[in-house]
Request: fold
Amino acid sequence: MAKNEIKYLTAIKQEKRPKKYCRFKKMGIHYIDYKDAEFLKKFINEQGRLLPRRITGNSLKFQRKVGDAVKKARQMAILPYVTDLLK
Amino acid sequence: MNNYELMVIFTPVLSDDEFKAAQKKYADLVVENGGEIVHSNPWGLKSLAYPIAKKTTGLYWVMEYKAPSSFNEKLKIQLLRDESQMRHMYTALDKYAVEYNAKKKGGGKFTNEKNEA
Reply:
């Protein structure tokens, strides 16, 4: 038995999360339409706030574009600025 | 010549004819100023996500057009003088956006409008 080998009585729990990816890069989407409210709702929470990149997994480039699209949609009253129970 | 998209929310009190007349007015304005209309899509009455000018619904109209960049200022003046519009926005379209819009038009949506007109 090797010297440095450490043995645990119970196996250490190691859950492996699937790696997050940017759906725009993966699917080859270049333009995010501000008119498509149902699609933009994937990137906002129940209060109508933008979800962080940490959760959506978007690349920086596309997170910015999502942000722009959501802001345009808000201006044109397609999405609300603040709300409750959006979804 | 650049590609733009204009979205206007008209007040819901407009009648069908007035709505059409207003669309025509701005479409003509584009052509007069050396532009070109790619596509015009009246969404019609739609409820707003939040009230604008104490109204909960609005008549949406989306128009895609090509125009010289100096045209948008003229368009803005006309739109702001118009009492029947509640809100407007024009967006510059990049090549991907133009592609996306062309693709979307190719779908069933476009044929429906053509039948109605």
